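Key idea: predict the complex, not the pieces.
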Amino acid sequence: MLKIKSLRARVEDKQILKGLNLEVGAGEVHAIMGPNGSGKSTLASILAGREDFEVESGEVTYNGEDLLEMSPEDRARKGVFLAFQYPVEIPGVSNANFLKTAINEIRKARGESALDSKEFLQLMKEKMKLVEMDKTMTQRSVNEGFSGGEKKRNEVFQMAMLEPSLAIMDETDSGLDIDALRIVANGVNALRNENRSFVVITHYQRLLDYIVPDYVHVLYDGKIVKSGKKELAFELEQKGYDWIKEEISAVKA
Amino acid sequence: MNTTFQHNGTEVFVREFNKFKGAGNGTLTSMRKDAINRLSELGFPTTKHEEWKYTNISPILKGDFTLITDDQFFLTQEDIKPFLFAGKNSILLVFENGRFNEALSSIPENSEGIVLGNLSDHFTHPAVKSHLGKYAGYKDESFIALNTAFVNDGAFLYIPANGSCEQVVHILYLNDTRKHATVMYPRNLIVAEKNSSLKVLESYHTLGHINQSFSNSVTEILVEENAAVEMCKLQAENAIANHISHTEVNQTANSRFNISTITFGGNVVRNNLHIVLDGVQAEARLYGLYLIDGKELVDNHTLVDHASPNCYSNELYKGILDEHAQGVFNGKVLVRQDAQKTNAYQSNKNILMSDDAVMNTKPQLEIFADDVKCSHGATTGQLDEEALFYLRSRGIGEKDAKAFLNIAFAAEIIRNISSQYLQDRLMQLVEARLKKINSYE
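Result:
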């Protein structure tokens, strides 16, 4: 589904990704962990198509197509979804209106007919339950005045509505209390199936207690330096990232 | 030599004036004469004039200003249909190339002394006699002088004390340029007496797209004690239209005045809005929206004159400028020495959609009282890149995402209009205008 080969990227003159490799198969959940500044959010941004980053070399293919060539909207239409670390507030644009436009763009790309208002409302009602979202949230402007937890729930709600085949979750756990974390994780778990893949980016192991990954990768200094099964996350939790850093410097020396 | 005015260009108007015969008695005739003489003396402002620094009006003066004064009308119901924004049952006054077209207008039987009609039919009305020309002074303003010289047709709306008009009164000005260039000098007088209320839509449109038009309007509005007037001035003429308007508002104690000035562009467009808060606890709200592209120039000049204590004014003007468009905002809030406990707020926000668009903004506060709350500010920038990326990352194309954000930006102004029907129709017009802007990419 997703193949990243020797990806090198920079922002202005700062090298951030230094030859990253990753393969994600259909239906798999991959956690990417790493200390601050290791390049986690840069990876998420590049996959979603943010233009602040310059890809120097390497390739990213998604279902065999060159992902880096596509506009952000085309990626979304082909099933890529980014749950933002900091969801943007857009005053004056209603959540419902925005989402209806988005869903119908994606349906059009899939060759499906547009949802009418009734069908859309029905679907919204159904998916709202997943993240215990209340009706007033959908009537408000996109993320405007939402608490941190509401913003993250709204991201998962949008994911449920748009039904992506590859969801990238950028530190979805940051700023969440334990109740909100549980709601968000339950929403994500309900969306797991054999065709849908997840890349879950997080600093802490805590989220992975709820969203149990198939694979765990450690991103450090722009590269994936260690990969393993879910047990790797527990090891990181116990030993911290210093252990990885020491291993790396030992190899270099 | 005084270079802030130029005298070239007034002769053609004097020649037209000599052919012009307006209605009314000797008082009006002498006011007109005085006004044209004043125009000849003054000339037209140049860009050396501080108030016209960014707005060069010489392109306007190259036009054809032959005034149509006969009583032949050509417009049909079909022609005006696209412009009926105030609802099917609204009160409608139609002006064809500046002349009142009674057949296309729709005015209910006047009751309880309310007058909604053509100014030149009411020159003997006591309110016209006591108010016409009393607020919009032409001694120093060339374009008010020009308008006053040709005072004749326009809307006269009079709501006597304790009266009210529930429906929106739509004053529709249509320039029919399909066969020739047009010029018009609409003159409106709106008088809302004590405890009365009124809602007005004043809109300007063009038919045709080859010949130029020039609209030079003056509107005087009197909002008396405890009266409430809501205005929407919509300028939706074509891209080659020239439009210079002056709205002069006088408010007395406890009155409320709310105006939305919406401008869709033209060759040169200038909106002057002066509000005098001339009685305690008067409130004025000024909203403005300009959506411009091509080589259009739109200049909004506002003055809020706090002349009495305990008054409130709030001003918000927003603009979206694309391609080579030029915008000017000059907003002055004057708080006179006696106007203690004034609350005055002003803000101007602009989005530049292209590197070639230019916005000149100058918010000004002049405060002579010491116990006041005042603020002002201006911002000019690009569309929020983060918001744009967010929308696109959900599958919404770049063009639509920009339109989404621009519509939301504009909606903050339109939302202030109290008639839901009018608000919805204006939102449709704004969306259409903005989609055209975005389709130029």
